[in-house]
Amino acid sequence: MLIRSAISTVVAAVISAYACAAVAQYGTPIDAALPLIAIVVTILAAITRPAIQVAVPLLIGGEIVLGDERLRLLWFGLVIGAAFAAALLECGGSPSLWKACTVAVLAVVLLRCIPFANVILWREALLIVVALLIVVALRGTAFAVAVAVAVALFTPLVPLRTIGFPLAVLLVLVVFRAAGMPQINAGALSATAVAVMMLFFAWSGVFARALPMVIRGLRASTPRAPLRMALAPGESVSLDVPPDASALILSGANISRLRAGTVAGALNNVPIRVGDVADWGFLRREHFYASRNPIPANPAGEVRDYGQNAWIDGAARFPLGGERVVRVTADPRLPRAARLQIDAFELVSR
Amino acid sequence: MIRIIAAVAVLLALPLIAFRGRMLWRSFALQLSVYAVSALAWRQVAGSFDPYLATVALFVTQLAIFSFLLATAPPDEVRWSANRAAGLALLVYLLMIPAMLRTPIDGDEPFYLLVTESIVHDHDLDLRNQYADLAHSATGRPDLRPQLGDPAGPHGELYSRHEPFLSLLLVPGYLAGGLPGALVTIALFGALLARSTVRLFEDEGVADATTRAVFPLFAFAPPVIFYAARIWPEVPAAFFFAEAVRGVRARRAQRWVPALLGLSLLKLRFLLVALPLLFAALKAVVRRQKAEVSGRRVLYFCLLLSVFLLPIALAWWATGSVTAVHSVRELVPVNPRLYAIGLFGLLVDGASGVLFQAPFYLLGILAIVRWRETPGGFRIGVIASLLYIAYLVPRSEWHGGWAPPLRYIVVFAPVFALGAAAVWERINSGVIALIAIWSAGLVAHGAAFPYRLFHIENGENVAGEALSTMYRTDFSRLFPSFVRLNDAAIVAGVLVVAAFMAFGFDRIRVPAAIAISIVAVALAAMFAIGQKPGQVVQFEDAHVVHDGGELYPGLYAVARFYYRGGWSLQAGDSLSFLSRGGPARLEYFAPAPVLVDIGGRAYQLPPSGKGFAAARIDVPRGHVKLRCLTGAINLDSLSF
Question: In terms of CB atoms within 10 Å, which of B236, B266, B346, B502 comes out highest?
């Protein structure tokens, strides 16, 4: 019986992966990873409820019908989130340990291993082991899966010492368990939490490092008139404002170590501080840990890259009030390598 | 905003009616979660997605989750009875009414309402003054004209071709609330239908768990959910039919006599359904009453006679003909090919077949091959439907004409749902999942775009048209069409026969995951094939890019499927399409010589005479432009 079930799972996985590969028509790594996603869904269905496999035709339908990238990837997230939530709910909130471990590993794989090119295998393997230990420490409940997946998601693993975060969580849980912590199921809540994390699997890096921006809603691209200027400390420039400009887009370069409130420059003699503006790449996976910048108050950054590598540039939006000329000054007290970048004028959408 | 609040309230009320204990709280928690996740998702795409469609999709998702919980809940956490089922259905149907009223009522609906208005205001059935004052009609259709074949009275009276009983039933609702009141009346019949169907299941010994699993696919899925919020006689007829079957099975004349009378009064053609049931009832009466006094037997025969004669008398009184707008000749058998087309069309046609528009009922039809395992109610219902279906399928409008899909067989919904329930345990869970997802999609689509429920029968369907428009290749040819018979129809016909045989033999057991994966790979194959040029180009189809010219015949031409031709071009007009290249046969109509340019080559086409003509031409490969240089031409098709 077990062998028959395994064979049918393998056959279903191969057929589903093939079908997904055949329809993948867009260039993003997420679209290219559809076969892998199909295999993940098949395993998920095999260990919980076979009907969850219906996610595969839904993914294929999205690939065929939804041309808009944001919409399509979000649809994939919805489908996969629903599949994982259904899998956890199917287990009645307290899946068996091996099922819980499998669901956790599958979720972590989707959240962290697409695109595969940027994956450092041994680090990810180490993280998965810690995640599994968390699942075991919490007795393999749906809540355990949600905690393990969340810990894996929010760990950048660059630099390696950030592995300390999941280890610390594990340690605390082990201590709590030793102290007689009761078993927590919270099936519906845990399923929802996992669904929300999986909803953004296509931009899991953004979800992990810029959660407030995700909650507020990721900005869609706006029409812009690019300026691409970088002011060294003390430099100043006056700009003629185009008639259809609604805002000026500014960001910093090499200012990721500056704390919130540090003056970075001025716009028409009004000070611009870190917090109003941020380093352009401070949300990149490799810079995030060392950065001290907060997310800009009025962010204008666009979503870049996919999966755990996804990030939003630190550009900030400064609304214009009908001025014909604006003067931008970089603060002379900025570090020598730092720059205040004038990215673009944001134009009124037509 | 009021509609949204109403929808949220209804969705909160559903678990209160159906669940208790942990399931109740779980249901609320899930609802809350879905709202939260949806809000988060919406923030990411706001502005780039239709908010109305998104809202409808959200509520349909909530309904689907409720249905799933209803189907899977432990028995001790469910409050389940026929009355509760009716309550659930009524709430959902009331919610559907404003969704359906997003666009004016259409098809036969305004005419039924017009008759109601005539009964209320003039106390007659003459619609002359209604047509003369459409601005004050609740139909919201100032463009109404008498329908083709409407009977006229001896003094110039103008009657509707439709039986007046439904209009009469709508009177109280109309008096209470105009058009919405009339629709609420239908929704009430929908709730009664839900109740009767659940009672039918109980009578026939279907387990509660199975009833709960089947119920949402019956009550909250097409076609019932749409017809329960629109003015058609089908839902009241389905209610009367379910009651009649229950009455005949239980040998309760108090039930089946009024039910059959109501059924026959709604539509004269339903007499074909009533007659076999009358026969069955009569047989039962004769058997049972053998030992009883003959006086009661006489009474029964009088009742039987009244069921048969009253609708005919009413038809004669209303239209001057005992067959109303029908003719006895319609019952005479015709070309067998027409039966095959109609029957397979009803099953698998892309625009109006059960497979695409209400796949759940295919399970009920499949149950026929397991005849001996099915309950008596199903068997008697199927037998009762045979005469009607045999009458219906060879008719050119087997697909239902200008109406939401499956209009003619809505009346049998309770019986086919019973059939589905009878074989439920045998159905692959993967197939059930696919049916559930597809049905939810149909409900969302129909509720968000009620006008799309009315699809011109032209050989395409909504999905095919959407994909063809998106990719500019002919995807419609991949959906079976029995209006414009295509290869996909033949394949689908063979597959459906194979499915019936496989289900009958019960030897093939496919794991659910593989069944779903096969559908996935079929979708992928359709996508790959759909992007390639087809063998036939129908010039009116959605994949053809039209630059000038016009559709022939016009979109709303009555019985459009009778006509040939597709797109008319005048000098200067053009169209383009994806061509597979090579010699091809162009079918056209041109009253005079016409000069066309096809892919850079000019062809002088001779006049076609009275009918259509064919010309051999060479067509280049790829996207080809066809321009009319001089004259005028009606293009039908291009076959490679």
Answer: B236
What is the reported pTM?
0.92
Contact A56 B517 (CB under 8 A): yes
- Cα–Cα distances (Å) from B614 to A188, A236, B588, B592, B611, in that order, read 65, 76, 6, 14, 10
Q: Is the pLDDT of residue A93 over 60?
A: no
State residue B316's pLDDT score.
Answer: 75
Residue B340 has pLDDT above 60, yes or no: yes
Smallest Cα distance from B438 to chain A, Å: 10
Are B410 and B233 a contacting pair, CB within 8 Å?
no
Average pLDDT over residues A279-286: 93
Exposure string over B76-105, b if 16+ CB within 10 A, otherwise e: ebbebebebbbbbbbbbbbbbbbbbbeeeb
Pick the residue of B517, B518, B523, B532 with the most A CBs within 10 A to test the interface with A by mutation. B517
Q: What percentage of chain A exceeds 90 in pLDDT?
A: 83
Q: Report the candidate in A211, A86, A71 with the shortest Cα–Cα distance to residue A142.
A: A86
pLDDT for B304: 72
Indicate the helix (H) or strand (E) that contains B570. strand B567-570
pLDDT at A34: 96
Confidence tier at B77 by pLDDT (50, 70, 90): very high
Sole residue written with tokens 């419609």: B476
Strand (E) or helix (H) holding B424:
none
Question: Between A303 and A95, where is the model more confident?
Answer: A303
- Reported as half-sphere exposure (CB side, CA atoms, 13 A), residue B574 has a value of 14
What values do phi and psi take at B584, rounded to 5? -145, 165
B300 pLDDT exceeds 90?
no
Assess contact for B160 and B194: CB atoms under 8 A.
no
Q: Which residues of A65-102 are buried (b: 16+ CB within 10 A; e: fewer)?
A: ebeeebbbbbbbbbbbbbbbbbbbbbbebbbeeebbbb
Please list the alpha-helical segments (H only) found in B46-148: 51-72, 82-100, 109-122, 128-132
What's the gap between Cα A24 and its chain centre?
A: 22
- Nearest chain A alpha carbon to B47: A220
Could you give the ipTM of this predicted complex?
A: 0.92
Q: Please give the single-letter amino acid code of residue A101.
A: C
Among chain B residues, the shortest Cα distance to A18 is held by B521
Residue A25 CA: distances (Å) to CA of A55, A204, B524, B532: 18, 22, 11, 15
Map A286-306 to HEC letters: HHHCCCCCCCCCCECCCEECC
